[in-house]
Amino acid sequence: MPVTAVVGAQWGDEGKGRVIDYLAEKADMVIRFQGGDNAGHTVVNDLGLFRLHLVPSGIFYPATKNIVGTGTVVNPDNLLREMETLAAAGVDLANLWLSDRAHMVMPYHPLLDGLEESARGGTAIGTTKRGIGPTYSDKAARWGLRLGDLRNPAWLRQRLEQVVPRKNVLLERYGAPELSVEALYEQCMAWQAALGQRIVDVLPMVRQAVQQGQNVLLEGQLGVMRDLDWGIYPYVTSSNPTAAFAGAGAGLPASKISRVVGVVKAYSTCVGAGPFPVELLDAAGDELRELGDEYGATTGRPRRVGWFDGVAIDYAAWLNGMTDLVVTKLDVLDTLAELKICTGYRLGDEILTHVPDTALLEMVTPVYESWPGWQQPTTACRRWEELPAAAQRYLRRIEELAGVPITWVSVGAAREAMFDVMRDQ
Ligand code: GDP
Ligand code: IMO
Ligand code: MG
After folding, report:
1. Any alpha helices (H) in 235-388, and if so which ranges?
2. Given this model, what pLDDT does residue 299 score?
3. Counting ligands in written order, which one lies closest to the CA of residue 303?
4. What's the number of CA atoms in the CB half-sphere (13 Å) around residue 418?
5. 145, 175, 196 — which closes off a domain?
6. What range does the domain containing 245 cover?
7. Ligand 2 pocket residue status of 109, Cβ below 6 Å
8. Do 257 and 274 meet the contact criterion of CB atoms below 8 Å apart?
9. In the predicted model, what is the mean pLDDT of residues 137-156?
10. Cα dist. 131→4, 14, 45, 164 in Å?
11. Is there an atom of ligand 2 within 6 Å of 323 CB?
């Protein structure tokens, strides 16, 4: 199937990086279609352990073109740092390309992200403070600067002269020092010198790949529950991690996406604020956090953890048009005697089987069904038949609630610890 979108089907951190790394072996191109360096996509392979923030997770295959797409927002300093780390580990970056239409996270964006979070006080979103919200806000308000602007110094200077005074008014209101156009311009020229050759009009490249029927992977960041439109607004990110946006963010028609792979953990986690009905606030939650090593890849914050949410997966499957499901981190549940799956949200006398808007979601309590654990290791399993019967039943229930077939199961962080269910059944 030539064009495949790989998207987060929960709150983020489902294991998208490891799934892309696995699937990219057969891909000609991988395109990150939204988000910025708020992403922390972990890949464990023979070169080591990597936490990718902006660089697409297909980068470990030198022949695969890796594109930071138009729908992303790029902090050039952080990208350069990430590239340095990768190069030092022996990763070939010759095939890394940046869309000239992607917006830049400017130095004032993370600054404003932090200041705005403080201003929200008790209702802070818990952002990664990477400037993602302020950058997308400027994009929508048409005050943004794009990577392609770096190639046109006169245009760039004019844009900075328009934008920076507006930012300074805001910074002054927060009591923060003002920024100079000149310093930012110099900074931009340094970025151009370091990245200029990679900044291209990616459309001809993408179009040719799709028209030739090459294998193209579209890499989503975060997950549907943090989608700007369908997530738990305002506790969301400022872009759309759902497959519907993948075409726009990558530069191809929606009708060309032939497969949508939803990545889901065998339980739930979330980083940041907002309603999370399945959250475990007791010792069971602490145990699950430790078993899964659930600490944020970008901020290191402990992740909130909970049982599998069958209502959210149905929502994710519909909104993304999922054709396949990958279940990751099954092995994390190996030692537990009993597992729970949420099948509804209780709201007063009603049991909801859909995800309501945020204010209502804050009031629901989960309705659980109980499943026996398998209490044996699964990490070495490489075929469906090798999984314990209780694990198979648990996965079949997830599949049923999603209404989407499970195509791959992941039982460890390493590249080889994932297997194809269809092939082996
Ligand atoms: P992403 O943002 O969706 O790419 O996910 P993250 O990288 O933020 O979080 C997933 C974490 O789980 C990473 O630390 C991965 O190395 C790890 N991981 C992924 N799949 C598995 C798995 O099947 N088993 C275990 N034990 N760890 C996994
Ligand atoms: P990956 O790609 C988990 C969360 C933040 C916050 C909200 C908005 O690794 O899944 P932002 O910085 O985007 O303005 O923050 O989204 N968040 C993530 N949570 N994984 C991520 O990335 C995240 N990126 C942002 O915690 O609640
Ligand atoms: Mg992550």
Report:
1. 246-250, 283-292, 310-320, 358-361
2. 84
3. 2
4. 25
5. 196
6. 3-100+199-261
7. no
8. no
9. 98
10. 29, 23, 30, 16
11. no
Q: Looking at residue 423, what is its pLDDT? A: 55
**Residue from 14, 5, 7, 6 nearest 271 by CA:** 14
Q: What is the pLDDT of residue 130?
A: 97
Tell me the per-residue pLDDT of 154-167, one tens digit each, with 9 for 90 and over. Answer: 999 999 999 999 99
pTM tops 0.90: yes
Q: Are residues 383 and 348 in the same domain?
A: yes
Å from CA of 296 to ligand 3 middle = 7
User: Do 58 and 39 fall within a single domain?
Assistant: yes
- Identify whether residues 297 and 176 lie together within a single domain: no
- Measured from CB, residues less than 6 Å from any atom of ligand 1 are 8, 12-18, 40-42, 44, 297, 328-329, 331-332, 410-413
Of 261, 293, 311, which one is at a domain's C-terminal end? Answer: 261
Per DSSP, 256 falls in state G
Q: What is the mean pLDDT of residues 2-13?
A: 97
Domain count, the chain: 3
Is the domain of 224 the same as that of 148? no
Task: Give the count of alpha carbons within 13 A of 83, CB side only.
Answer: 18
Share of the chain above pLDDT 70, in %: 99
Give the whole-angstrom CA distance, residue 186 versus residue 164. 14
Q: What CATH number corresponds to the domain at position 407? A: 3.90.170.10
298 — pLDDT class (breaks 50, 70, 90)? confident
Are residues 221 and 287 part of one domain?
no
Taking the C-alpha atoms of residue 306 and residue 311, their distance in angstroms, rounded to an integer, is 13
Q: Are 91 and 110 within one domain? A: no
By annotation, the residues acting in catalysis are 13, 41
Q: Give the chain's mean pLDDT.
A: 97
- The answer to whether 41 and 20 are in contact (CB under 8 A) is yes
Six token digits for residue 264: 């889901």
Cis peptide before 234 (omega within 30 of 0): yes
Angstrom distance (rounded) from CA 54 to CA 46:
21
- Tokens representing 424 are 């082996």
- Ligand 2 within 6 A of CB of 271: yes
Residue 95 one-letter amino acid: N
Q: What is the whole-number distance in angstroms between the Cα of residue 47 and the centre of ligand 1?
A: 17
pLDDT in tens, 243-277: 999 999 999 999 999 999 999 999 999 999 999 99
For position 1, what pLDDT does the model report? 57
